[in-house]
Amino acid sequence: MWRDADFRRLWTGQTVSQLGEHACLVVLPLIAVLTLHVDAGRLGVLRAVGQAPVLLLSLFVGAWVDRWRTRTVMVVADAGRAVALGAVALAGLLGGPGLAALLMVAFAVGTLSVFFDVAYQTSLVRLVRRDQLLRGNSALEGSRSVAQIGGPALGGALVSLLSTPVAAASGALFFVLSFLSIRRIRRGEPVPGRAGRPPRMRRRIMAGVRFVVRDGSLRAVGLASAAFQFSFAATMTVYLLFLPRELHLSGTAVGLALAATGPGALLGSLLAARLPRRCGHGVVLVSAAALGDGVMLCVPGLHGPAAVTVPALVAVNFLFGACGQLVNVTTMSVRQAVTPDGLQGRVAATITCAGMGTAPLGSLLGGLLAERWGLRTGLLVTAAGMLLSPALMALSPLARLGRTLPAPRDAHARGDSA
């Protein structure tokens, strides 16, 4: 696969785009915390606004992407996000962005990120053979998981070490690099379902929803994802306040602690290419989710100087990254394997909506718990909630998956092919 120039271009573009996207998830909140001095409630609102497009738009985007070239969707999304962050940089030069401006930019970046994320997942299925999905997802999700924490670490460093305009402009640069890489993909892209007059949007969306609901494995992926993303969003809202205010860590120390998930995710990516085939996909999913989510319960118990807390946070985040990446790659490979080509975008969007759509509510809850119960108690409660995800997996057909991926389901026989 690495000898395939188009796959390398997709991987490169997706990697830098994900890095920019996840850097923004910390750059904008940290600008609000360090420059505007917002409280926990307003920080929760800012994070919720950035995550709201997943809930509001995912199903529509999935139906739309299934009928368009994913390359076009991705480059337009990259260009739009670069412009949005450029606006923050310009506002910084003119005196600093206000909270209203940050809310608008967070919503714009979140909206375009929904388009990009659904498109790149669909793009892989159109670019490689089905027997290459596990390896392809291992590469793509490996870089995404590294970006999930490497991006916030980079974002924390940018805000701490550079001015607000430079930090925002640096984030925009990642989207420009992604734009340049993805637009160079040359392979013709088959787009299922473009012939003839398309069915109504509502009918096409519901076909994807029905397919997920009727399939036990996909239904479990959606429920487990919803439980995890809700609790994780709540946890991160408290976490971003807990590290600087309760443990008194600098922005650089926060970035260093969060960055440890990057190497962990890289290890998880390597394990994901082999471990499910040796131990079974179900065993890997349940055990990795339980270990990775459970280790976060250690964080609320940390006390002491940075010389003690930072190494402990590094160890926790490394394990969380490794296990989380293992779960991400395995679940995505299962989803892509059982889904017909013509439903890939809608199924990806349905599961994204079910999972990430709960994140805004989780962010709001995290801010509320931090205000009413305190940072340490709030973090303990939200971290404990993450264990619901492996529990749901253990009680579902996912736990019984063996060493080989299941075959694609017949959408036509089930009436879900619209």
Give descriptors for this structure:
globular; mainly alpha; 0% strand; 418 residues
Task: Briefly summarize what is shown.
By secondary structure, this protein is mainly alpha-helical. Helix content is 78%, strand content 0%.
Question: SSE layout and pairings?
Answer:
Elements: H1 5-34, H2 40-65, H3 70-93, H4 99-127, H5 133-161, H6 164-182, H7 201-214, H8 216-246, H9 251-259, H10 261-272, H11 275-279, H12 281-294, H13 306-338, H14 344-356, H15 359-373, H16 375-385, H17 388-394, H18 411-414
Report on the architecture of this protein.
- The chain has 18 helices and no strands.
- The mean pLDDT is 81.
- The longest helix is centred in the C-terminal third of the chain and has 33 residues.
- The chain is globular and about 55 Å long.
- α1 packs antiparallel against α2.
- It has 418 residues and is an all-alpha fold.
